[in-house]
Amino acid sequence: MATNALELSHIDAYYGDSHVLHDVSFSCGEARLLGLLGRNGAGKSTCMNVTIGLLAPRRGQVSIFGTPVAGLSPEQISAQGVALVPQGRRIFKSLTVRENLVVAAQKPRDGKHAPWTTETVFAMFPRLEERRNQIAAHLSGGEQQMLAIGRALMGNPRVLLMDEPSEGLAPQIVHEVMNTIRKLKESGLSIVLVEQNPTLVFDVADDIVILNTGRVAVVSTPAALQEGNVDLTQHLGVF
Ligand SMILES: Nc1ncnc2c1ncn2[C@@H]1O[C@H](COP(=O)(O)OP(=O)(O)O)[C@@H](O)[C@H]1O
Ligand SMILES: [Mg+2]
What we know:
This protein is an alpha/beta fold. The protein has helices spanning 44-52, 74-78, 97-103, 118-124, 126-130, 141-154, 171-186, 198-202, 222-226, 232-236, and strands spanning 6-15, 18-28, 33-37, 59-64, 67-68, 82-85, 159-163, 190-195, 207-212, 215-220.
């Protein structure tokens, strides 16, 4: 059986005494796109925090291409080839566009994919190149999201995690971001796309996992869910 790019198995995670993830298991295959859905507070970002080592799970394992990483530091996990585009962008607002990219640069760990550099990121996002010497705080929301994606790519990841990249963006910009995600998938990256809105994700995802109150409620595909066998509003509210 092929090794999964990312696998969470039987994860229990807490913030202090608050038990947030309950026996969460899901996986993202190599060069596949997993849509991770769930309403606000379902535990999506906590899954991201556990994956990148910001929150150590109390039980369970996280594997990156078969290598167990639960309990390792964020630096050690990042070195396995995982990068996160965090919810709310979290770029360095006082640095220029170019500086934001340069400080995130890491060497690729396999020869499989063309390495990302400031030049290749600028080729993907021409608007960032036009603004390369501007302070990031002066960018529009859409440009800041592109910069956040560019920063993650500069780490030359094998697995890219994106936490609600469409949040707070105008529909036209969301469309551009989704096109970018599609291109990244075609390049062979393994991607976990976290969203609250299923219609966005159904377009690009191979597989779907829905979290509900910290538990995996549904494991499916866009096609199966669009047939309507699962009550999506039960898990996702109104969308
Ligand atoms: N740093 C934190 N400390 C304590 N509780 C938190 C923290 N971050 C999130 N939570 C709680 O954990 C649960 C899951 O949150 P989160 O993973 O951010 O959900 P989602 O990303 O799906 O909206 C929520 O009940 C939230 O209030
Ligand atoms: Mg979140």
